[in-house]
Amino acid sequence: MNATPKLPKFFIGVYIMTAVSAVLYILFLFLPHFADWFNRSIGTVCRAALAYLTSWIPFSLTELLLLLIPLWITLLAVIAYRRYTHTVRATLVYVGMLIGGVCIVLILFVWTFAAGYFGSTLDEKLALDRKKVSAEELYETASILSGELKTLNDEILFTANGDSVMPYSLSEMNGKLLDAYDRFSEKYDLLDNYSTRIKPIMLSEPMSYTHITGVYTFFTGEANLNVNFPDYTLPYTAAHELAHQRGIAREDEANFVAFLVCMESNDPYIRYSALLNVYEYVASALYSADVSLYRKSYSALTPEVRAERVAYAEFFEKYKENVAATVSQATNNAYLQSQGAKEGTKSYNMVVDLAVAYYRPLFE
Predict the structure, then answer these.
(1) Could you give the C-alpha distances from 32 to 39, 81, 286, 289, in angstroms and in order?
(2) Helix (H, G, I), strand (E, B), or coil: what is residue 193?
(3) So what's the pLDDT on residue 345?
(4) Which of 229, 181, 224 is nearest to 209 (CA)?
(5) Coil, strand or helix at 47
(6) Cα 296 to the chain's mean position, in Å?
(7) Neighbours of 269 (CB within 10 A)
(8) How confident is the model at residue 82 (pLDDT cuts 50, 70, 90)?
(9) Where are the alpha helices (DSSP H) in 42-169?
(10) By C-alpha distance, which of 229, 204, 230 is closest to 308?
(11) Range 90-119 average pLDDT
C-alpha cells in the first residue's frame, strides 16, 4: 500500500524563499538605492559563488543543460507515471515539486541579477551628462573613435579577405580581459572583479542563426561566447558578458562598461575590438540622423577597417533573416521589457548616448 504522499520539506523551504524573493523584487522596484546595495553586496557574493562553482568546467554547462531538455522532459514524465499518478493528491504533490523547480530559477534570478535592472543608472554613477544627442555630436564621437582606430591600424593583423586576426587563444583573451577588469575596478567604483572564464559555445555556428553573440546565464553564473562570429567581435562581446557576470544588468550599460574595460587593456587588439564595435553603434545612429555626415565619417576610416566591415557584412548575410532570429529577438525583447527596459532589444543601441556623453567634453 502506498504511503500518502507529502510535499518534501525542501520544496516547502523553496516556497518560503520564493516569497522572500518576491518581497525583495518589489523593494528593488521602488528603492533604487536598496537595489544598488543589494546588487553590489549580496548579489556579488551570489554571482561569484555560482561563477566559481561552474568555472572549473571547460565547456558551457548552460548549453549542456539546454541540449538535454528532451531527456529531462522524458525523465520527469517517467517519474510522474511511475510514482505520482496513482491518486489526485500524488499528482498535485508532483506538480507542486515541478513548480518548486521553476521557483528555484526565479530565486536565483532575484538573488543574483534582478537588482541590477532597478538600481541607479550608469550615467549617474559615472557623472555623465546623458541627454538627447544631435547628428553633429554623433559625428564628433564617431570621429574620435575612428581616430583611435587609426592609431592602432599598424598593430592589427588583417587577412587578404579583410578580416582582422586575434593573435592569441580564447584562454589568453580571457586573461587579458580579467587584467583589464582589475584596472577598471581600481579606476571606477562600480563592481568587484573575480577570476572567471569565458565559456565557448560548442554549437556556435547554429547559434549564429539566432543573432546571439554571447549570453550570461544567471542560474549557472556562466558568461557564454559565440565563437563563430569574426575575431574582432569576440573581446568586446566577452567583456559585455563578463560585465553581466559582475552585476551590470542593463544592456546599454553592459555595452559601455565593456568598452571602458577594453580601453583599460594594454593589448591593442582588445582596444581595437571595443573601438570598432562602439564605432558601429555610433555610425548606425549617425546614418539614421544624417547620411552625409555618416559618409564623411565612413570615409575617414582606414581602408583596412572599411574592409573589416565589408567582410563582416558578407559573413552575416548567411544568418541575416530566418525564423530562429525572429523568435530569439522577440523573446529577448519581451524579457528586457519585463525588467523595465521599455526599449527592449533597442536598448543595446542606447550605448550611443553613453559614448557621446563620455566624449562630449572633448568636442564641446
Answers:
(1) 10, 47, 33, 33
(2) coil
(3) 45
(4) 229
(5) helix
(6) 32
(7) 24
(8) confident
(9) 42-55, 61-67, 69-83, 88-112, 122-126, 135-152
(10) 230
(11) 95
Residue holding cell 544568418? 319
Residue partners of 282: CB distance under 8 A and separation at least 6: 138, 141, 142, 145, 352, 355, 356
Range in 32-41, 148-157, 188-197, 231-240 the model is least confident about: 188-197
User: Given this model, what pLDDT does residue 104 score?
Assistant: 97
Average pLDDT for 315-335 = 78
Grid cell digits, residue 111: 538573488
Cβ neighbours around 335 below 10 Å, total = 12
CA gap 99, 94 in Å, rounded: 9
Looking up cell 529531462, which residue turns up?
A: 72
**3-state SS class at 214:** strand
* Mean pLDDT of all residues in 217-237: 97
Residue type for position 356: V
Distance CA 268, CA 254 (A): 21
Instruction: Give the residue among 196, 200, 165, 164 at the shortest CA–CA distance from 181.
Output: 196
- Return d(Cα 254, Cα 243) in angstroms, integer: 6
> Are the C-beta atoms of residues 177 and 242 closer than 8 Å to each other?
yes
Q: What is the pLDDT of residue 297?
A: 96
Burial-class residue 268 by CB neighbours within 10 Å (0-12, 13-18, 19+).
middle
Rounded to whole angstroms, the Cα distance separating 358 from 362 reads: 9
Bridge partners (DSSP) of residue 198 are 223
Q: What is the pLDDT of residue 349?
A: 59
Cell of 191: 563592481
CA–CA separation, 262 and 271 (whole Å):
5
pLDDT (mean) for 133-160 = 96
Residues making up the chain, counted from first to last: 364
Sign of the C-alpha dihedral, residues 53, 55, 58, 63? positive
Q: Which of 120, 123, 119 is nearest to 356 (CA)?
A: 123
